[in-house]
């Protein structure tokens, strides 16, 4: 791989990491600056497709307002670049907590696995997010047998599914 392609690869990885860092820090301004203006799309696990910068950013504001604590551990990060478009796939290993019942306390922590696809476009201001799609990992891919996906017949989404739920990133 030549020098410029490696530089693009590093810049895309940096833009992808910045998305999750902004969420962890609750930095709505930084998160907003990462998205392209206009025709973008976003699918949070359990949510319908959101279209347009305004609708997408409102969803992140709602999630941030209803999530006391969140931390992402990204694994399986793969970056592919074709011209001015970059595709990033990864697994979001999420630890999150909602509001506590008592002041000064942290709410219950919930772990969740989400596979994500992030599509970036090259702009004059660097790589900007064009689309995000997150899907919950419902099956135990490590050792389930005979169709046992570890969900005991449930859909695996659990509490917090839907707009405003703490486990939907």
UniProtKB/TrEMBL annotation:
Residues 153-169 have a biased composition (Gly residues). SUPFAM superfamilies: NTF2-like. The lineage of its organism: Bacteria, Bacillati, Actinomycetota, Actinomycetes, Kitasatosporales. Residues 143-152 have a biased composition (Acidic residues). Residues 138-169 are annotated as: Disordered. Residues 12-137 form the SnoaL-like domain. Coiled coil: none annotated. It comes from Streptomyces zingiberis. It holds the Pfam family SnoaL_3. This is Nuclear transport factor 2 family protein. InterPro entries: NTF2-like_dom_sf, SnoaL-like.
């Amino acid at each position: 791989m030549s020098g410029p392609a490696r530089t693009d690869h590093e810049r895309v990885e940096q833009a992808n990491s910045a998305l999750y860092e902004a969420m962890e820090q609750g930095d709505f301004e930084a998160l907003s600056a990462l998205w392209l203006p206009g025709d973008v799309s976003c699918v949070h696990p359990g949510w319908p497709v959101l279209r347009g910068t305004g609708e997408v950013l409102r969803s992140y504001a709602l999630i941030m307002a209803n999530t006391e604590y969140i931390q992402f551990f990204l694994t399986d990060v793969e970056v592919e670049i074709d011209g001015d478009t970059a595709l990033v796939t990864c697994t979001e290993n999420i630890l999150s907590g909602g509001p506590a019942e008592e002041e000064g306390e942290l709410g219950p922590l919930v772990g969740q696995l989400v596979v994500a696809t992030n599509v970036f476009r090259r702009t004059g201001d660097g790589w900007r997010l064009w689309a995000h799609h997150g899907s919950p990992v419902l099956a135990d891919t490590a050792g389930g047998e005979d169709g046992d996906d570890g969900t005991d017949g449930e859909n695996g989404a659990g509490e917090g599914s839907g707009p405003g739920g703490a486990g939907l990133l």
